[in-house]
Amino acid sequence: MGRTKSSVINISVALSGQLIGLIVSFIARIYFIRVLGPEYLGINALFTNILSILSLVELGVGPAIIFSLYKPLADKNTKKVLSLMKFYQKVYIIIGIVIAVLGLCMIPLLPHIINDVSISKELNFAFSLFVINAAATYFFSYKRNLIIADQYRYIATIYRYSFFTILNILQVIFLIITGSYIVFLILQITLTVIENIFVSRHANKMYPFLSQKKYEKIDKATLTEIKKNTKALVLHKVGGIVVTSTDNIIISIYVGIVWVGLYSNYQLMINALNTIIGQFFSAITASVGNLGAKEGATKSFLVFQNIFFFNFWIFGFSSISLLFLANPFIEIWLGSKFILEINIILILIINFFVNGMRRTSLTFTDAFGLYWYSRYKPIFEAIINLVVSLLLASKFGLVGIFFATLVSTLSTCFWVEPKVLFKYGFNKPLKIYFKKYFIYTLAVILAGMITYEFISLIKGDSMLAFFYKSLICFIIPNFVFLILFYQTKEFKYFYNLIKPTFVKFKSKFQ
Question: What's the rounded Cα separation, in Å, for the pair 381 and 391?
Fold first, then answer.
């Protein structure tokens, strides 16, 4: 019950924070485009992706250390936690410095990446500020991760979205007053540093032993485990970054920086949904890690089945909603000139669903520390993605680039990740997973077809039409899923989980 309670609190706070953050982000995007224009929007997205690539320097050591924290935290072994945190601190300071140096060395390469915009001193300085902001994050984030590993993610979440909201409000105000992209970025650095200081102080209060100067060195067995997981995670890091962070660079080179800006609006929507849903999986990772440290594979597998069912339901519903509402929303939000063609939207949504369905396997893989067994998968994923992207980009543009992502995912992650988990985590046959996956995918396709029939009855692009379409997207997929799965043990698990809340709520009105 302790794990369940922690997960529920973490999820509730995360969803509330993300909802506020989402509203603030969409409002801030309007003013960003109005003041700075679509070219700066593309530049901002491109710089963000370049810095994501530089995060390769982290080498996956962070997740490896977090995994090593689960057992000592569960056993209340403060001496070992302190040893790990001191090691973590040293590693992350070095990583921050290396990222700063490498980032500044990349400035001469910018003209080769951004072909259709002249590189001015202002843009060079802006990129330097991006680098400083990325490096500064590493100097304090290790304490944030201790709070998260100890199942108190909601504390870090409160700080995150409080400062995120303040930052966006200040950025909008100063954009209106100054119209300066540089001021926009300086505010970002300032709030990042202040937030990290606040989180660090809170961690010191929660864990007073962190202030101790004397501590034991990490034992050889733990250090060997960290090194092993880091070696595996660095490959995962490379693969993940090549797949997720090179698209904007390729778009900039082959299609143009303005298209990076147009795509970034859809990215904002998709990332927002991914982040909202991801809060659930992030919130339960520490609890799953605790489960793995204390319980056996049988109990863990039962939990996996329930979470995978939730995974399908939420990503299936979200995919259908995105497919039918993305363009109408963009038109209302920013205008018709920011809309992408439906074939581009379709491939984006397929990628969203396929990658979303990986969440449960990845959560359990992270929590169980099974990185080593799939260490070569990301390399093949990255090579396939990059090669297919370069082959298709010049002829098919955005569709070719996004199709390459789908090809690389289906040929690697789609089957390797569950295979590793089921073999080394659960000791179960993989056919159990793919049977469920197939049933869930058919359910999404069926729900999507039925939703389309109702959506096609709504004519026009007015706010009222968008409201009716949203209502249909909310009701139809969930109703179809309910009819198909209400008798399954997974549905009954979640029903019994929330039933007491409904009973309490009902009793208040009787």
Answer: 15
The pLDDT confidence band at residue 229, using thresholds 50, 70 and 90, is confident
Residue 80: closest CA among 89, 69, 91, 90: 69
Where does residue 489 rank: exposed (0-12), middle (13-18), buried (19+ CB within 10 A)? Answer: exposed
Per-residue buried b or exposed e for 315-339, using 16+ beta carbons within 10 Å of the residue's own CB: bbbbbbbbbbbbbbbbeebbeeebb
What lies within 8 Å, CB to CB, of 30 at 6+ separation is: 333, 334
Alpha carbon distance 328, 335 (integer Å): 9
Count Cα neighbours of 393 within 13 Å in the Cβ-side half-sphere.
Answer: 20
Residue type, 19: L
Q: Is the pLDDT of residue 61 over 80?
A: no
Full DSSP string of 189-202: HHHHHHHHHHHHHH
Q: Which of 107, 73, 65, 91 is nearest to 222 (CA)?
A: 65
Decide if 184 contacts 240 (C-beta within 8 A).
no
Predicted confidence (pLDDT) at residue 22 exceeds the cutoff of 50: yes
User: Which tokens go with 166?
Assistant: 């303040």
- For the residues 371-384, what does the mean pLDDT come to? 84
Structure tokens at 311: 């995974």
Q: What are the angstrom distances between the C-alpha of 344 and each of 92, 177, 403, 453?
A: 39, 37, 9, 21
Average pLDDT over the chain reads 84
Q: Any idea which residue has 């997974």 for tokens?
A: 490
